[in-house]
Amino acid sequence: MTDLRLKRHETFSIREGWLQKGINIIAESPECFKKDSGPKYFGLGANMCKSLKYWLAATDIAKFSSIAELTNFGSLLKRYDPYLQDQFSWFLIHAKLAMNFTDAPVINQLFNVSYSKFDKESFTYYLCDYFKAKDMNISSNSSLESDINIALRSYCIMDGSNPENNMNCPLGRLGLLQMDGKRNYTKQQPTYSSLSYLAVYYVMDTCMESREDFNLEDLLKKENNPLKVFNISKSTLFLYLDEMKNYGIINLVKTAGLNTIHINKPLALNDIFEQYYKGK
Q: What pTM, to 2 d.p., does this model score?
């Protein structure tokens, strides 16, 4: 039985300014997370620094050994959007987090669970059953509850009167989850124009492990597919696929009742950033 890695966030969701501060300070001072150094570099308490380190790793922005180092993704954010002002960056940060079962199992399942409306209690029961079926050990109920609270808090604007409140997580601005009253939650599809086809391509390509040809039906059976990660409908996915086709990235061929996607122009993450910012 494998132990789940829970409560590594120190009960803090991502705060306004945290990730961009992490990106820019790591680029200048790789030693910034050495023992007891964090508060001096980041102006945060020790537990907040531990939380920041966790979120930087869980979103694949940084990796840590004897020093802190930006990943390729972190380096691209530093190059193209160092202050994380573009929603495109946040959709990619969300995708990295939502597809990361190892470091963020509760957030991963929040987006992979099949129902679109739920309450905290039903989601908790679902997680317990899911992890048990995966032969994964929950270290404590309180740790699981903490991760659930942080996951829900990360994607909901808790102070609706002030979306810029620095206690709110920037992921809440993506509009992927709405709290109805005090108990119920509803997944929401982001506005079409706010989500780039390039972010959808990235998730699709990652999910299908960069295969050049695959059936759309196979894609939709997988966890971490674009419909789940971004809460989009199948009909909306076709709109994004049409955009990819118009830019020469894919061909969509319908044969024998199947939709076959052929990747004409594979895009690495570097290419995705370049193409997005070239088009702005």
A: 0.95
CB 62 within 8 A of CB 69: yes
What are the tens digits of pLDDT across the range 77-96?
999 999 999 999 999 999 99
Q: Report the domain count for the chain.
A: 3
Residues 152-185: pLDDT tens digits?
A: 999 998 655 444 446 789 999 999 999 987 789 9
Clarify whether residues 249 and 162 are in a common domain.
no
Q: Report pLDDT digits (tens) over 31-58.
A: 999 988 999 999 999 999 999 999 999 9
The answer to whether residue 11 sits within a structural domain is: no
* Domain limits for position 183: 89-188
Same domain membership, residue 75 and residue 149: no
What burial letters (b/e) apply to 120-147, b meaning 16+ CB within 10 Å? eeebbebbeeebeeeeeebeeeeebebb
Domain assignment of residue 264, yes or no? yes
Q: Taking 90 as the threshold, does the pLDDT of residue 5 lie above it?
A: no
Q: What is the pLDDT of residue 158?
A: 66
If you average pLDDT over every residue of the chain, what do you get?
94
